[in-house]
Amino acid sequence: MDVMIAQTIQLALAPVFVLVAIGNIIATLTARLGRVVDRARQLQKMHGETEGMQHDLVVREIRMSDNRINLIGRALRLLVMAALCIGLTVVLLFLEEFAHVGLNPVAAGSFILAISLLMWALLVFLRETREATAALRIPEEFLEKDREL
Fold first, then answer.
1. DSSP readout, 21-34?
2. pLDDT per residue as tens digits for the range 16-41
3. Residue 117 near residue 85, CB atoms below 8 Å
4. Three state DSSP letters for 66-132
5. Domain ranges of the chain
6. pLDDT of residue 139
7. Distance from C-alpha of 43 to C-alpha of 41, rounded to nearest angstrom
């Protein structure tokens, strides 16, 4: 019996490592979300204080910040769901061991679902990084490409 428990613990280690990775990604996204929210608050203060082209730039960046906040929130929800599926996988592995019920296919399904959610979250995160890159682009009018320096 002790050997079987040890084997179950070894089997459960792989999902737990994935859980740690998901936790690290969640921490990264949470930090990014905090920075985006802080910048959005600054922009909201600037909104009423700007006019013309400068106002248009502020509005453009506010819109991009709003989109980034939505993308990060979506990625975080997917990651939390993936983490819950990983936890379910570990529970199912131990229930299989102790209750001797045929839960291995269900555990495999929950692990596949967790990895699928993780990949989906990473794709959403990729979209957010593309938005961030676009937000960092310097507007053409500031580059003055028609001038030779």
1. HHHHHHHHHHHHHH
2. 899 999 999 999 999 999 999 999 99
3. yes
4. HHHHHHHHHHHHHHHHHHHHHHHHHHHHHHHHHHCCCCHHHHHHHHHHHHHHHHHHHHHHHHHHHHH
5. 2-138
6. 72
7. 5
Q: Residue 2: its pLDDT value, please?
A: 66
pTM: 0.83
> By the 8 A CB rule, do 86 and 12 touch?
no
CA dihedral angle for residue 16, residue 18, residue 22, residue 28, rounded to 10 degrees: 110
Type of residue at 58: V
Helix/strand/coil for 149: coil
What radius of gyration, in Å, describes the C-alpha atoms of the chain?
23
Is residue 1's pLDDT more than 70?
A: no
Q: Are 26 and 117 in contact (CB under 8 A)?
A: no
